[in-house]
Amino acid sequence: MSLEGRRITIRGIVQGVGFRPWVYRLATASGVTGRVCNDTEGVMIEAFGDAHALEGFLKSLEGSRPPAAAIVRVECTAIPPEPAEGFVIIASRTADGRRVSIPPDLATCPECAADIADPANRRYRYPFTNCTNCGPRFTIARDVPYDRAQTTMAGFVMCAACAREYETVSDRRFHAQPNACPACGPHLTALAADGAPLAGDPLDVVGAALCAGRIAAIKGLGGFHLACDARQTFTVQRLRQRKRRDEKPFAVMVASVAAAERLADLTEVERRVLTSVERPIVLLRRRPDAVLSPAVAPRNPMVGVMLPYTPLHHLLMAAVEGPLVMTSANRSEEPIAYRNDEAIERLRGIADLFVVHDREIETRCDDSVTRVIAGAPVVLRRSRGYVPRPISVARRFAEPILACGALLKNTFCFGVGDAAHLGPHVGDLENLETFESYEGSVARMARFLRVEPLVVAHDLHPDYLSTRYALRRSAALRVPVQHHHAHVASAMAEHGLDGQVIGVAYDGTGLGTDGTAWGGELLVASYERFERLATFRPMALAGADAAIRHVWRLAFAAVLDAFDGDAPIDALPLFTAVAGRERLLVEQMMARGINTPLAHGAGRLFDAIGALVLGRAESAYEGQIALEWNMAADPAERREYPFAIDTGTTPWTFDWRPLVRHVVDDIRAHQPAARISARFHNTLARATAEMVHQAATRVGRLPVVLTGGVFQNARLAESIAGLLQDTFRVHLHREVPPGDGGIALGQAMVANSVVRARGGRES
Ligand code: ZN
Ligand code: ZN
Ligand code: FE
């Protein structure tokens, strides 16, 4: 047979994941010659052989790929044959530099996990074992291209055995940049609370300490964790006190899927997400018989579970018996600690001992969080394992854009070429430490991408630190983007939508163009513009932000409003539990409008009604009551409450007063909370569907996106999607958080439309 040639380009996550060695092995096995190299957007193969050999090769490329690879597109064209000698891997071409060629950190692969468990292996119990399929990437990278010399592994010189692996194409560690072994790589050290070294094998020391109920600070991939036995209430409680964390749930790490099954009944999808290379925390509904201290997630029916994702975790989990609390090492509200000295300094008085090592973390990266909604995962916090994987967008960025995000759970986004790069989670931008971490993270991503954007997008809110940062940064163009418009644009971008959509944006709060707090919005939007078609009837926030903590005030405002001066306050247990003096004060504040802004937030309605029915006067953290209220809903209950949509106003108003009156009736009739919650959710879903249908009569049957923090609520998202999907194409967030952690992407898209309208250059 005669010689033929093919050029195959593969797009997706194919760099830094062992893809070229895999292609090499397949080519050699199929008897084709040629070459493979990384190019700016993926991998390019030129293969030569007879038709039969080429066909076999192409077929094998569709077979089992390296676990961390994700292929978006494969193209194959015929090229003139060349008489090549064998098959070679060509060194990376990184001339363009317009993409982060650094992959996300990858969870330990099964082969490496087997290596460290095998007493005969030279990496037995070695916590820094990795290969081309797994190990640290983003968190150790100092610059691009992603080569060992540009990582925090630069100072470690490979021993002869490691160097041989690194240079052998057929080896699993061929070009594994962080390759290391006990002879040449980083090492663990256990330290006492004051930083003095502890004698003995660090793994044994920490294992024994954890079993004895101590709290350990353990250096991980993207920062330190605080770990303790998740079954010992006294210990978990002590961790809460020391960390000054009231009731926010802690995530737990378990050794295996089987161990996770003992905490929660897993669906197939949940099992898949738990074991994915990203290894996020997965929010699961806790089994009633789960052996877990209630202090792990007080009053929370869910539990965040993750599996080990570094060799150190595997070794640690083997040394202890049960699940471990694994929470970001910080005091409340501060960013995660990530450097040895800094950790010892900042975690003084929190950790009883430390497990540190000498491989530096270059970039902080918190654990990511996911939840399965409507049968597929939604990333609620997008960080370790996902960042800096680019999100490809349908519309090219006319020039590089930096979008600064909002306030809570913030991230930023760089739009460059046809990709958006969301940064790692930096937390709530409310203090100097977090702000500095944010600034540093922005600078690092700019360096990785080799861009210094002159277009900067930001929220409308003038007081957000992200806005102030945007205004201070030198820029040729600043684009303020309305909060909910950004939410909608973010959902559009993720699903490659262009043109107009009907956007349902439900969240806690975001500043509107009229200066009031929005948050229960139905927009008709494109990237260019939006129109606010409908909103929730506003609610009074007595004491502004204080009302969000003292949630009974929201319930109080809702009930007073719903009954128009004739409210049965004394018949409701929530209010009788509040001191009369306090009630009077709040009533006066509302009557006189003192420090009592009105807010349209859908999240506030969840807080108010949740507080009312569950009898909870206070919320320990943002979203606590809403989540409990959401989880309380009886899945079997089908009834709804009445509501009204006033189309005589601009925008239309969703009037929840009839709903509140019926909730009050149900409380007085001693209906169970599960039933009231279900009816409440059914009503909101029905009202939303009705508003969308109304909107469609005006603007046509456009695609619908559901966005905003409220859509972390699986029950609501699933019911709305269920009611609409026969008539509309409904999109939920998947890869990008529905909450404010995803908002920067939308800001970048909106800013891009402004640049394009001004005739911006192509980047
Ligand atoms: Zn591996
Ligand atoms: Zn070595
Ligand atoms: Fe928001």
Question: What would CATH call the architecture of the domain at 188-357?
Answer: Alpha-Beta Complex
Q: Compute the gyration radius: what is it?
A: 27 Å
Overall residue-averaged pLDDT value = 94
Low-confidence stretches: none
Strand fraction equals 15-25%
Shape descriptor: globular
The biggest beta sheet is recorded as: 10 strands, mixed
- Cross-sheet strand order for the largest sheet: 6-13-7-8-12-9-11-10-14-15
The CATH homologous superfamily of the domain at 188-357 is called DHBP synthase
Helix coverage percent: 25-40%
Question: Helices and strands: which structural class?
Answer: alpha/beta
Oligomer: single chain
List the total number of helices. Answer: 23
Number of strands: 30
Structural features, described:
It is a single chain. It is built from 23 helices and 30 strands. The strands form 5 sheets. Strands 6-13-7-8-12-9-11-10-14-15 form a 10-stranded mixed sheet, sandwiched between helices. Strands 27-28-24-23-22-29-30 form a 7-stranded mixed sheet, sandwiched between helices. Helix 15 (552-563) crosses helix 18 (602-614). It is globular and about 90 Å long. Bound molecules: zinc ion (2 copies) and fe (iii) ion. The site of fe (iii) ion has 7 residues, from helix 13 and strand 22.
Short description:
With 763 residues, the protein is an alpha/beta fold.
Descriptors for this entry?
binds zinc ion, ten-stranded mixed β-sheet, 763 residues, DHBP synthase, Alpha-Beta Plaits, binds fe (iii) ion, alpha/beta
